[in-house]
Each structure stands twice: as C-alpha cells, then as structure tokens.
Amino acid sequence: MTAVDLLRSGRNDFVVLERYEAFGGTTWRDVANETTKLQTEKGTYVPEYLDPEVHAQEDQKTWPSRDSILDMCVACAEKHGLEDKAKFNTSLEKVEVKGDLLAGGHIELSLTTEDSSETLKCSAMISCPGVFYNPIDVKWPGREEFGGYITHGSYDSINYDKLKDASVCIVGHGGFTIENVRTCVERKSKKIYVVCRHRHLAGPKMVSWMVSGAAIPIPGPFVVEAFQMMYDLLGVDVWSHPVVNANADRSSAVLTQTTTFGVTDIYFLACYYKVCEVINGEIDKLSKGKVHLKDGQELECNVIMKCLGSHGATDFDDIIGFKFYQGWWVNGEALMPVMAPAKGVQAKNFGGFSLAPGYAGQIITNRYFIDYPDKFVGVRDWLPKQTRDDHYECNYIYKGAHVLATMVILQTQFPDLAAELGEADKLKAYKHIKAHPLEKHLDECLKEWKMYIKMMKDHGQIPADAEEVEYPYTKENIMQLDQRCQEAMKAEWEKMMSKKAKAGK
Ligand SMILES: Cc1cc2nc3c(=O)[nH]c(=O)nc-3n(C[C@H](O)[C@H](O)[C@H](O)COP(=O)(O)OP(=O)(O)OC[C@H]3O[C@@H](n4cnc5c(N)ncnc54)[C@H](O)[C@@H]3O)c2cc1C
C-alpha cells in the first residue's frame, strides 16, 4: 500500500527491501495456513485502497483465500512495476543515521542477501516490518504421555488428516481459533473444545459488514446490540462481558480486548450445536488422551492445537536503533516512520474491523512528512512518547490508542493533512458498499450459514434431523438498527451544537 501510494503521489525514487522472494508479507507468505481466508470482507482489503478508481476484483471471493490474496498482491505489484523496485531475499541488518536528516544528513542501511552484503544510502525510510513473526509456544508437562497430535494452528503447520473424526482441543481464543473452528468442522472433527483464559468477543459477519459500511463510525452501544443478536444464540450477555465497559444507561460503551475481533459466523453455529464448546480455563498438564485444566476439569481429546498468538520481530528494535517513539516516528526522526500497530481493540466508536483503512491514514501521514519534514519538527514534542523498555523485545510495536492520540494532534495542527485524511476516510464506506451491497452480502452470509448446517449434518457432527437455527440477521433488523443509530448520532450532534451555541462558540 505504501509503495503504491508513493507512486500515485509522483514519487518514483524508492526501493522496497524484503526478506521474502516476493510480495505478500510474512502475514500471507508464512503465518497464514492453506485454509486461511480473509476474515473481513475484500471490499476494503486492496493494496490500491487509496485510489478511488480501483475496487476489489469482482472475480475474487468475498472472503478470499490466502492464495487469492497472494495473487492479488503480486498482480498489483506487477501492474505498478514494483518488481523492479524490490530487492527480494534481502535482509535489512542495521540502520544508521548519519548527520541531521533535515540538513544534508542521510540514513545508511546495511543489507545482506544469501551470498553478499551491501550498504545503501537513503534520505527517508518507511518501515513496515509487520507484527507477526513466530508463534507463541507453551509446552505442557505430560506431552510425551499424551500420545495424540500437538500442533500450532497457524504458520501452515497443521496436518489436516489428523483432524478427521478427532476430538480437538484448541488453546486460545483469537483469530486463528476462529479460523480453526471452521477448519475442524470442514475436516470432519467430532468435537472441538476451545480452552481459553479470556473468551474474547468474535465478530459476526454482518456486524463486520455494518461497521465497514458506516460513513461515520458506529457508537459502541449499537455495536454491542448487533453482537448481541448473534450471541443470544449462545445465551451470552454481551453487555456484561468483560470486554464491554458501558455507562449506567448504556448510552456509551468502550470495547477493549487484546486481539482483533475474529470475524465469523460458523464459530457461532458450531457453538450453538455444541460441536464446539468454549471452556474458560488454563491447561495444567496432559496425560494419555487427556487435557487437565487447572480447575480440575479433564477433557478427552486426541489433537491439541495451539492458537496462542505471535511474537513480533525480536531483532527489529536493534536493527533500527530504537530508543524512543514520538508518535510512530523512531527517535523523533521526521523521515523514519514505522507502521506497526499492535493487534487489539480499544474503541468507543467503530469504523471497521479491517486494518487497511487504518493503515491508509498512517500511509498518508508518513508521505505528508516526507514531503514537508520541517512541519514535523514543529509538533514533534507534542506527540505521545514511548521510550524503549529493555525488558521488552518488541518496542517497535505500539498500541492502537497511540496512533489515535497522534492522529488527533496532527489533524488539529495541519488542516491540509486533515482534509486529505477526511477524503481517504470516505473511501472506506464507498468501496465497501460498492463491493458488498446489503442484500447481496446478507444473501451470501445466509447461504453460507445454511451450507454449514448441512455440512455438519452430512459429516455426522450433528443429527440429520437437528432443527435449522435461523440466521439472526435480516434486512429488516439491520436497517432498523441502522436507522436508530443514525437518529442517535443526529441527536448527539444536535446536543453538542446547542451546547456550543449556548457557550457562545
Ligand atoms: C492469518 C492472518 C489473517 C489476517 N486477516 C486479516 C483480515 O481478515 N483483515 C485485516 O484487515 N487484516 C488481517 N490480518 C492482518 C494483516 O497482518 C494485515 O492486514 C497485513 O497483511 C499486514 O501487512 P504488513 O505488510 O504490515 O506486515 P507483514 O505481512 O508482517 O509483512 C512485513 C514484511 O516485512 C519484512 N521484513 C521485516 N523485517 C525485515 C528486515 N529486517 N529486512 C527485510 N525485510 C523485513 C518481512 O519479511 C515481511 O514480509 C491478518 C493477519 C494474519 C496473520
């Protein structure tokens, strides 16, 4: 996205450094499984997101597979001639700032390939190192005795043959758990236990659709209400979920969790039919064919799938010479931004579960200060600061709230930047709705819902005569929720304006 945006704004004088042999990133080349699909909708997940004329490919599925996304990245790079700008199989090993970058200084990069090394000089460096590197691992006592199959649920390491007829214990409750509940249903597992310390909220597909399609971010209470329609099937009260912090009259709600919302419907179906059971707890030890939890519960299973999240790149702080951030600029250097927001949610209003629109704002801002670095100097000291913690290996990853606080300051100070960001914001709802009109999208979700019920029956995971649970979202209830949401936002706006008028502003 960054490279495409630089070209679009007339900058041609850059190179792309990449350890892999092609575009797609660690995310899609290494972390994703062959069964991974985009969880958010394709409409806003396009490398040319910032080009108003370019939309998601029509022949791509709504939730494209890993391979389809890789093809999209490579095709986009080819279209823009980015292959010629890329140095693949090249590792950035060291970054040194020589002199004052705003007064004739430069950045010196030490690079290595498999059989050579070189240095490269540049005047600015936009780092997009990613936040997923290695899977977090836990080794429980008794694993030799267990006798079953233990695997990570990511990094394409699953032997799918082992899932058939198996009783699978998935550990953790993030995005890969959501994906692997689907995979286990598809691969005919008999039973799925999800053992987790925190039952994070998962995002129903129509809620993801709703927030991405909203021109103005949707207030938390309406998002909770939309979640509740699905969670009612499981008897879970979302309002009293630890992720939700609402005021007494529920007119405001902040949702906070350490993973993004895994977007899914099949997880809810599998839980509804008790093919999947979520258990709050922690594994203490394993014994033959059993998982023992710390609270004394025992689960019989023959597969354990670890979905515990990922570590960031533990070498990147040292490579870049990280001492502190001001905003997301390393050591306060206007020409050295880093794109590395942590996974997770902390929001009062929701404009989407897809990351691309958020990246877009940072990309525009990075370019703005590459064009006008002197402007950065004027605001640098006002930006939120984050200093290196030597006990932590990935200081380069910052919280979403850090981005938000930085953006608020920058937009207040630079109206021209704010205007460009405002225009880019409009692209989200426009592109999303163009790719996924309500009726078409709802129809697709409904068909998929029925398809999975049939699949579970065909696989013998649920009885052939099990009742068909209804999809909780309809055109009517979605439109009604949207209308109430619009009215509430309008009332809030009018209240604010009248308060301002009374204060004489
Ligand atoms: C399985 C999975 C599914 C996801 N699904 C969604 C989704 O549905 N919707 C959504 O919005 N987001 C999703 N995400 C989030 C996803 O990570 C981002 O959307 C995006 O792909 C991140 O891209 P990136 O380029 O920032 O990072 P990465 O993909 O991690 O790429 C970083 C690149 O930097 C290179 N690099 C790092 N250090 C060096 C170095 N020293 N020298 C040379 N090269 C280096 C790496 O080789 C890597 O290729 C998903 C993530 C995962 C893991």
TrEMBL record:
PANTHER family: FAD_NAD(P)-BINDING DOMAIN-CONTAINING PROTEIN-RELATED (PTHR42877:SF4), L-ORNITHINE N(5)-MONOOXYGENASE-RELATED (PTHR42877). Gene3D superfamilies: FAD/NAD(P)-binding domain. SUPFAM superfamilies: FAD/NAD(P)-binding domain. This is FAD/NAD(P)-binding domain-containing protein. Transmembrane segments: none annotated. Belongs to the FAD-binding monooxygenase family.
